[in-house]
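ingest -> fold -> write
write: protein_1
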Amino acid sequence: MKVTVENKKGLNKDLKIFIDKETMNSYMDEKYEEIKSSVNLKGFRPGKVPKEILKRQFGKAVFGEVLDKVLKETSTKALEEKKIKPAGQPKLDLKTYGEDKDLEYVLSVTELPKVEIKSLENIKFDEYTVKIDESETDKRIKEIAKNQTNFKEVGSETKAKKGDLVSLNYKATVDGKDFKGSEGKNTQLTLGKDLFLKGFDEQLIGVKKDDEKIVEATLPENFPEKELVNKKAKFNCKILSVKQSEEVKIDDDFAKNLGAKDLKDLKKLISKQINDEYKNSLDQLSKTQILKEIEKIKVDEVPENLVEEEVKILSQGMPEDEAKKNEKNFQEKAKTRIKTGLILNEFGEKNQIKVTEQEVQAEVQKQLRMMPGQEKMVMDFYQKNPSALASLRGTVYEEKILNLIKEKGKANKKEISKEEAEKILKEAHKYDHDHSHGEEKKETKKKSSTSSSKEKKPASKKVKSKVTAKKTKKVSKK
């Protein structure tokens, strides 16, 4: 194989690739040997069909397969040999081809530009830790204690009031007749919450232990026995106990019930929990700072084909006249996004950052936890949409790159109070809202689905075997 680079125009290059007919014939012979054992032709034993007969019968099909294979292999080798990473899909133009002929074709490719990443190791950003005041931790623990239910049984002479926990057995009838599900044993109701049947609780206010009480209530619309819906039922209730809530004592036992070793350990855990609530949002601010610093790094030339693709994404779903009016603005935004993606991608490759299947699945599980009750729908979506899973992989990849840049960069560490953290996040949110609102007013009244601050990472693509000959004649298709 002979490879020469021609027509160098910036990032655009033509690679002229030549394979002599002897090499092509060897590929053909190899393929005939491969199919010989599986061909059954009348008059010939299996594996004994002469090559000339095979050529007459299958020559065109064999050549098509061989051409497809050779184009894929040699185009990939040519790019590797010339150390070219293609931006987007290279184009193949066949010049000479055919059985018992030399193969010559031109591979037109847009190369990914060389980008400088050394400065990323000295990138500056703010890194925050939140100092949680002891009073803040105590306040949170008191809130937890307040929400803990701690009921204690009262004497048989004490009447139940709103907020008390009443345990009862009941037997219900409609028009004097029993029905399915008409009995309940040791049913517990917190009076005033009205969680059983509307108006049921309030009729139990004033009951005492061992009392019997007739309670009337209307059966609801969702009652399983449809013929009884909206019918009035009589509940014969036997009160088993009345319990009143007590203030929970905050001590070591309380802490142990929450999974801590003791109260001191609980305070540590709660303090960390409060800190973590702010950590993710503050870390995201640091990463946004890093991305803004990356945007300042100079890249001499951005591949035009990638810019065009990104502009299409930015203007997707927009009326043609609106898209044309904002084309220049979209091009600038597209260049910034692609440039940032190129830099991140180069850094990821240089540092051999990989995304494992386990990491992708962990991200899917995170999505599932964020949508309780819709887990099956989310799983089906990712199983049926490989592009969505690939996008998720890209998100994990970018996150790993930014985390490594953070490790290597120069963090301006700041310890701030909870109030300062809230103020910083509020200001950042206000800036994002005002900025995105301004962009919308300039670009379109309709909110663009691609207004996320995440940068798109353009990937270097392998050559596919869909090729066009001169005069756009299709020769083979993958």
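write: protein_2
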Amino acid sequence: MKLLVNFSRGKGRKPIIAQVVRDTGVLINVERAVIDSSEGEALIDVPDDACRLVRDRMADLGATVRILEHGVSLDESECVDCGACISICPREVFSFDTDFRLHVVEERCILCGKCMEACPHHALTLPV
């Protein structure tokens, strides 16, 4: 399951993800991270059965954590199956099926938003 973690670095440079791995024993896969001198956001993937444990421990350490049930969403009424999203996606979320209809594997999505920018019909949205 994917978790979106936001944290402030104002209280020091604690290695929050490493701390949670050590405390819980749960291995965390960082899929995307944007961190600067004052704050950070990381999209992480953890086993489904450990999701709440990791979320709670990160919250104890001062992070704001959201469980993401979905990745990118496709509005099929707007999509014209042009494939503009296919080549821009770094995780191969999009492909054509045998009928050249767009196929989406949303579990692969890392919420980078590149597909939304590329879509000429605004048929793609990210979870709020």
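write: annotation protein_2
The chain has two domains: 2-68, 73-125.
The first strand starts at residue 2 and ends at 8.
pipeline exit 0
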